[in-house]
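Chapter review: from sequence to fold.
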Amino acid sequence: MAVNRRDFLGSLPAAAALFANGSLVAAEPGLKSAARSNRPPKRVAMINSIYRFRSHAYHLGRRILHGYDREGFHHQPDMQLVRMFNDQYPAEDMSREESKRYGYEVVKTPVEALGPSGKLDVDAVLLVVEHGDYKTNEFDQVLYPRYELFQEIVKVFEAAGRSVPVFVDKHLSYDAARAREMYDTAKRLKFGLMAGSSLPVTWRRPELEPPVDTALKEGLVAFGFDRGPAEIYFFHALETLQCLMERRRGGETGVRRVTGLTGSAVWKAGDEGLWSWELLEAALARNPSNNTGDVRENVRNPQALLIEYADGTRGAAINLIEQVSEFSFAGRVDGRDRPLSTHFVLPAPPGANFFDGLMWNIERFIATGRAPYPVERTLLTSTMLDLGMRSIKRESKPQESELLDVRYRAPSDSGFSRGRMTREG
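The token string follows.
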């Protein structure tokens, strides 16, 4: 196989790390494998809604058991899945049979997942509540019991007098007040809390990461989703938007109001300058799933969430089902003629390798007890999502709340996947 000069030179630092560590995976502080250290792997409990093929719990759990790819090489995390609780057991449940093969225990209560008789004997908890048979409320929000199961975890922490890091898959709660309570509880008990989706840490083409304090003035995410309540993928869209808009000058200072729009009101808002047609065109141009033809003619029922940030910056997430099926971003920067833009790459199931980047960051979190990116991002997107769904059901009345006053600074490196998406040949 021919190797060009650029690939050869780029491989030298990685090769040095490989030889230095005697491993096929370059080491990062806090992420040495159990085979290369004198300590046992981190003991992990999973508390899930369901564990079936293609569920989020399946994708994350299998990466603990089997490892995953990292920059072209297989990586086995320094983690051991010891127990699992599932809220539901559909006919296609995989946990009971799989537990016999891989040696983890399936338990009857979330409390038991953290240790026998409520004794805390794990190093971390993954709360993965996505998929399953749950009702929706008047705002078309899926009533996933993330909050309720989180409270069960907290009971064990309080009884034990200590706590361990907790990762919450996707948003903290469909309800903004409950999301804030979960955040405050973690602060009160002083345990590491990490949350969010895989979108901010999957591959980007091109690999766009504006420096912290970039003069971003407006951002837009285009996507398409029609396989269930709109809330499900609007959360992904808001996280995609926020992981870039949080890098604007002055950091994140919160949101003033959120407005949800549907149908012709979406196009009207664009014509009135409430969101930018130029940014939409730039985002669509980056999107490999972009349909031919005019977006107004193609899309029968567009949906949008408009974000008015406290500092005057604007954001938009627009669901264009007949136009695209993937996520892309475009943003306007002061002093720059052309918009910034990128496509967020989501390799298809069954592998769904965008979970590789998420698991890498979860592993970093469990190793150090510190989230690699602020949980405040997901607190804010959870709140924006709740208010956006309420706005849509309230005839697009703008929604305001003191819960939108979330302030934080973005990390210099947001931890998204770079480089190869498959293993070396």
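Two observations follow directly from the output. Residues 375-393 form the longest helix (19 residues). The chain has a mean pLDDT of 92.
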